[in-house]
Every structure is written in structure tokens, then in C-alpha cells.
Amino acid sequence: MPSAMSIAALIWAAVLGAAAVAECHATRSPRSAPNILVVGATGTTGLRAIQGLLDVGYAPNQLQIMTRDASKPKMRQLQKKGFGVVQGDLQRPSSLRGIGKGCGGCYIHATGGDTKELDTTEVSSAANLCDALHEDVTCIVYNSAAGAEDHGVERIQQKHDVETILSKRGSPCHVTSLRANIFGEELWKGYTRPQILDGKYPLPVHRWRKIYLTSVRDLGRLAGTIIARNAQSDESGTSMRITNVAGDRLTGPQLARAFGKAQKSKCKHVNNREMTKMARENFPDLYEQIIFLQTSKEKTNIGSLRQEFPGLVTDFSTFLEETRWGDRERVFEDLSDPESLVFGDGALATESV
After folding, report:
1. What is the rounded CA–CA span in Å between residue 193 and residue 253?
2. SS3 state at 199
């Protein structure tokens, strides 16, 4: 029987959403765009977002990556590659004074930890950041979570509460909330990937129900493009745009077939009803998210997203190929190796800006 966490890997991936942006009247190359302060992106999924920023043409020295501890080996690796590193703790306002000075944009990947238990500091951390951001920052892109008003999930609600905080920022600012769906990267975790490679994909939904999927790398691509478009706008107040983000929408059996093709071995979707029962009795936070996955009527307009950001939104089969799912030696941590970062020339960005 699969563990509770094997389902959590899929459910707790629901963190994001897409962006609608103002019409662009002039093309701006990311190499001439403002620097970006990157917050909450020092973990595995965060590094995938950083890769997305590189994809659309940002140079390492244009990205200022915030961390609580600049002495960590990963941060030293990033510094050697030319990234800027700034130290700050979202729960210590005094450490945030002047944060973002010299940056026209800010990408907020997370203000709370990627933990099994709900991180209740997420909202207060966002408030501290918002209060401290330097006035140089005129464009913010936030990684939020897709969910209608009646979603009933505390994890999603915290992210929507963060959106409210950002929308009330005092300095003139263009804010975009990218509301994500299921992160494909979460399926790489050690309590999910081995079961799929062994041929069973446990997902507690009916075989006909379709699930939206988001690549974290796409979030970085969209965020970078939006900031390049909007950081120099002449808005006198704070504007807020919200769009859901996903690159594909598939049923459990369709997902299983995609896994099977990528790993060159059969994979079958299993609707484990016992998992729902166990979560209801023992894991209320997880149960909220399972029910959301089974009943949500939230929509993501993938076609519109592809029109607005041509070439920057990834379907699930391409995601599996790009992350090398079929290499059975690869593990989740390989996705966060700074040595795996690929530096682009901005071609993707200049096509879509």
C-alpha cells in the first residue's frame, strides 16, 4: 500500500498560478531589463524557477538570490557562477532593511517552507518582505496556488492571503500572481518516483477526472518575461493581475501512459480509495487537498497562456523528457544541483516579449 506521502507529493504540489500581463508596446531584452531579487528559491523547486529565468535570457549577475545563510555550499556554488547572493531572514525584519535595492523586479517563489506540516509563518513572512522591499522594486511576481473562493484548503488560503498583502503595497508596483496547479517536479520525490518506476501511479481520483500540471521551470520563464515587460511601467499605484498556470491537463490513465513512455516500462493509474479514508482519519491537511483535487471546478486556460507566452509553457511529456525521467539513476535532488543550470542567450524571451 502506498504511503500517505506518496499522495502528498502530488497534492502538495498545488502551488501556483499563471499570469496575465499588460500589452507590451516595445520589446525589451532581458539582458537590458532590471535586476531581479529572487526570494524563497534556494531549494529544489526554486532552482528550477531560476533555470526558467535563465531560459528567457537573464544573466546570473542580474539575479540577486536571497538566503538566510550565504555560507551554505549551494550558495557558494551559485556565487561562483556569477549569481548575486543577499542574506536575509523573512522572520527577522531587521535583516531585510533595504532588500531589493538596485532591483527593478522581485520574484517570490515562496515565503514559507516546503514542509509536511503547514508553515504558519508564510503570511507574516510575506508581510515583512513587503514592508521592507526597496522602492526600486516596481514589479513583483508571486508563485501562488490555483483555487476558487470555495477551495477549502488552508495551504491555498495562505497563498491567497499573501496576494492580498502584496496588492496593498505602498510603493507604486505591478504585481502578478502566478497561480500554479500540480507541480510536475513533486512527482520526482523519493516517496513517489520509485512507485511510478515500479509500474503503479497512486492518485486518489476517478480515472476520467483531468488534472492540471505545472512545470516550475515555466514559472521562472513567465516571471522573467513579465518583469522585463512591466518593471519600468509608469503606474502611479499598485495593480494586481491573477492568472492560473498549467502546461497540460490529463487524466490519471493518461499520466500513467506518459510515465510509461518516458521510462520505457508499463505504468498503471491506481485510484486508491483507502488513501482518502486514511487521510480523513489521520491527516486532515492532506485530506483537504485530496478533496480539492477530486472536486475542484477551477479552470486554467492553457490555450490563452500559450498565446500570451509562446514557447514558454511545457506539456507533461516534454517535462518528463526535459527532466530525464527515464534515467532511473536520477533522483529528486539532481534537479537542484547548481552544476545542472544551463545558461541561455535570451532567444526564448525575445520571441515572447
Report:
1. 16
2. coil
CA 183 to chain CA centroid, Å, is 7
- Global pTM? 0.87
Spatial distance between the Cα atoms of 211 and 181, rounded to a whole number of angstroms = 8
- Residues 6 or more apart in contact with residue 174 via CB below 8 angstroms: 22, 138, 139, 140, 230, 231, 233, 235, 238, 239, 241
Grid cell locating 26: 516595445
Task: Name the residue type at position 329.
Answer: E
* 114 within 8 A of 49, measured Cβ to Cβ: no
Alpha helices (H) in 108-243, listed in sequence order: 122-132, 154-167, 193-197, 216-230
How does pLDDT run across 266-283, given as a tens digit for each residue?
Answer: 999 998 777 788 778 877
Q: How far apart are CA 112 and CA 97, in angstroms?
A: 19
Quickly state the pLDDT bin for 24 (edges 50, 70, 90). Answer: very low
Section 111-118 average pLDDT: 79
Which cell numbers in the block locate residue 201?
A: 501511479
Over the stretch 234-251, which tens digit does the pLDDT of each residue have? Answer: 666 778 999 999 999 999
- Please choose, from the candidates 278, 283, 244, the residue with its C-alpha nearest in 3D space to the C-alpha of residue 118: 283
Cα-Cα-Cα-Cα dihedral sign, residues 48, 15, 123, 132: positive
DSSP 33: S
* Per-residue DSSP letter, 103: E
Mean pLDDT of 204-210: 90
Q: Which long-range contacts (CB under 8 A, 24 or more apart) does 324-329 make?
A: 325/188, 325/259, 325/262, 325/263, 326/262, 326/263, 326/264, 328/197, 328/263
All cell numbers assigned to 338: 547548481
DSSP summary character for residue 239:
E
| Contact by Cβ (8 Å): 277, 52 | no
Rounded to an integer, what distance in angstroms lies between the CA atom of residue 180 and that of residue 176? 12
C-beta separation of 274 from 290 below 8 A: no
